[in-house]
Amino acid sequence: MTAPRTILLIDDDDGLRAGMAELVEDLGHRPLQARDGTAGLALLDRETVDAVVLDLRMSGLDGIEVLRRIRARPAPPPVAILTAVATATNTIEAMRLGALDHLTKPVGREDFSRLIARLLATGGESGAAAEPRTHADGSAFVGASAAMREVQKTIGRVADGDVNVLITGETGTGKEVVAQTLHRAGRRASGPFVAVNCAAIPAALLESQLFGHVKGAFTGATSDHTGALRAADGGTLLLDEIGDMDLAMQAKLLRVLQEREVTPLGGRPVKVDLRLVCATHRDLVREVAEGRFRQDLYYRIAVVPIALPPLRDRLADIVELAEHFLALAAGPGAPRRLAADAAARLVAHRWPGNVRELRNVVERAAALTREPVLGAADFAFLDEGQPETAQGMEAMPGETLPEALARVERAMILRALSEAGGNRARAARSLGIARQALYERMRRLDVSENPT
């Protein structure tokens, strides 16, 4: 039988902390409890602790600062963050600082048990403490759905490294925003961020744009040109739509990644130190199979893959994104908001153009009305040329925004369960949320497990 381990629980919610302690005991381990970060750090000074479960929002030291101090200790125990309010910023920063995971409350008994098992299995080996970041800003990276939370965690885990990252997803899903967030959150944040759209530059000009050239290298080269690869030295280079790059250029890029040096047209090799992030809407695995993309280059650029889901699979993010874009369109000092029926209307739309389409729609509606509150009528143009298939999505007169969203959410869950034949795991995947999150929503919204 495995010897009992010591789990430190730091949370200012007495009831929740006591419940976690009881579960830790049920699992055969010893719980230690602290109401705030200072008390938790004091316990770490006196006790041998095998793992820590840490709240994020507490009086005094917040969870991020406590995590930073724990990770700075010699042989620190593994730490998991629990929070009632997860944001892109605190998720990315927690993972960057070395947290094993970053979970949103409430956490069910089964998930908590799995978390404890994962914490104890790590043995505290999760890397050295990261330096504090004052510029790790995820404020423009909006999204609290389960799928986007996993993206944020991945960004935090790899932000300070140099591994190449490949971001995939449909057009308009926000691949460049993810690349910018990865850059800002990492140790290269003070360096340049250079973006090149490979699909927008003719193949004959792309080599010069990437590698640069010296004066006189070819007809029309009247001065030296640095090129994107050297311009990104010390920072991050985003090659957007790399799936559109021709095979000859792919071979030259592969050599740069192998040798870490760039040879401008007509010039001599120059060493470069950059992080490469690539993005594409194409299926590169299929492109490799069909001979349109080099397999060796694919393995070089896809060390860490990040797949962005389409907006139609991120129902939980639609209203938050819309309100974010509305605030940007209104500007400071001119607050505007969505009425309940407008929010319901946006959730009901299928968004073939993804986040880019949503931003366009919100900016259009904001420009065409002077009212402080935008209603469903302000988004009537969404019906133009597109039959609406969602049912039960129209808001009721006098309905509040939370009431409308709850009803829309219930209708979406019922539809997903019906399409999945009652299989809750498949329904959760189609909704873009974790299975445990689906169970919690079904309980809260009184959705039957057998919708038929």
Automatic annotation (TrEMBL):
User: Where's the Sigma-54 factor interaction domain?
Assistant: 141-367
Response regulatory domain segment(s):
6-120
Q: Which GO terms describe its molecular function?
A: ATP binding; sequence-specific DNA binding
Q: Which UniProt keywords apply?
A: Activator, ATP-binding, DNA-binding, Nucleotide-binding, Phosphoprotein, Transcription, Transcription regulation, Two-component regulatory system
Return the Gene3D superfamilies for the record.
Answer: 1.10.8.60, 3.40.50.2300, Homeodomain-like, P-loop containing nucleotide triphosphate hydrolases
BP GO annotations: phosphorelay signal transduction system; regulation of DNA-templated transcription
List the SMART domains: AAA, REC
Q: According to the UniProt record, list the residues that bear 4-aspartylphosphate.
A: D55
Name the record gives this protein? Two-component system NtrC family response regulator
Q: Which organism is it from?
A: Endobacter medicaginis
